[in-house]
Amino acid sequence: MTPSRDELRQQLRTARRQLSHDQQKHAAIALASHLPDHSLLQHASQVALYMAADGEIDPHILAEVLFARGKQIALPVMHPFNDHQLLFQRYEPGQPLLPNRYGIPEPQLAKPELIPLQELDVVLMPLVGFDDNGNRLGMGGGFYDRTLGGVEADLRPTLIGLAHSCQRVEKLYAAHWDVPLNGIATEQGLHWVER
Ligand SMILES: Nc1ncnc2c1ncn2[C@@H]1O[C@H](COP(=O)(O)OP(=O)(O)OP(=O)(O)O)[C@@H](O)[C@H]1O
Ligand SMILES: [Mg+2]
């Protein structure tokens, strides 16, 4: 029997939390070694990423490499009024962050530091599960779906899911609100979705 979205979330979250400290470290280093050399990132000037939690692949070394190469980095910040929506704010690696209500560190909201979603070139986003068609299963809050769904598809940044390869599943069934990915980057490389 096919597991429900919630059952699948539990299985995949358990799998990624079971990765050892060494496996996590090697994955973070591998991601930071291959992704910045990809033409997508070489041509990007504003790139959003995230602070890893719950066993997610950790993009903090990647952020340092991209920042050293002159890219503007942004982090998601929870919208103060619009429930379950994200804003993206400029971030310099090492800048102080405060835990939000989910315990995820984020910059203190500062309006002049916000970058409109349409101005970002690439959004590197966390996920719980993915398939080769770019379907994405997140943590279940609908944060990325609501935020990205608010912008017409051809005005959106390039959307890349970051994941450990153990988060790949054969097929995910997308709901009508799910915003598909343009590609998935794991410790093994970047996989583009054909559309
Ligand atoms: N654009 C939207 N408008 C209204 N509700 C939405 C929208 N996108 C998602 N939702 C709601 O959010 C809930 C969670 O969505 P979903 O299960 O796809 O989360 P997710 O993709 O796993 O999470 P996230 O985007 O935070 O990583 C759904 O019950 C859905 O009703
Ligand atoms: Mg979704």
Automatic annotation (TrEMBL):
<dbReference type="Pfam" id="PF01812">
    <property type="entry name" value="5-FTHF_cyc-lig"/>
</dbReference>
<keyword id="KW-0067">ATP-binding</keyword>
<keyword id="KW-0547">Nucleotide-binding</keyword>
<protein>
    <recommendedName>
        <fullName>5-formyltetrahydrofolate cyclo-ligase</fullName>
        <ecNumber>6.3.3.2</ecNumber>
    </recommendedName>
</protein>
<keyword id="KW-0460">Magnesium</keyword>
<dbReference type="InterPro" id="IPR002698">
    <property type="entry name" value="FTHF_cligase"/>
</dbReference>
<keyword id="KW-0479">Metal-binding</keyword>
<dbReference type="InterPro" id="IPR024185">
    <property type="entry name" value="FTHF_cligase-like_sf"/>
</dbReference>
<dbReference type="InterPro" id="IPR037171">
    <property type="entry name" value="NagB/RpiA_transferase-like"/>
</dbReference>
<comment type="similarity">
    <text>Belongs to the 5-formyltetrahydrofolate cyclo-ligase family.</text>
</comment>
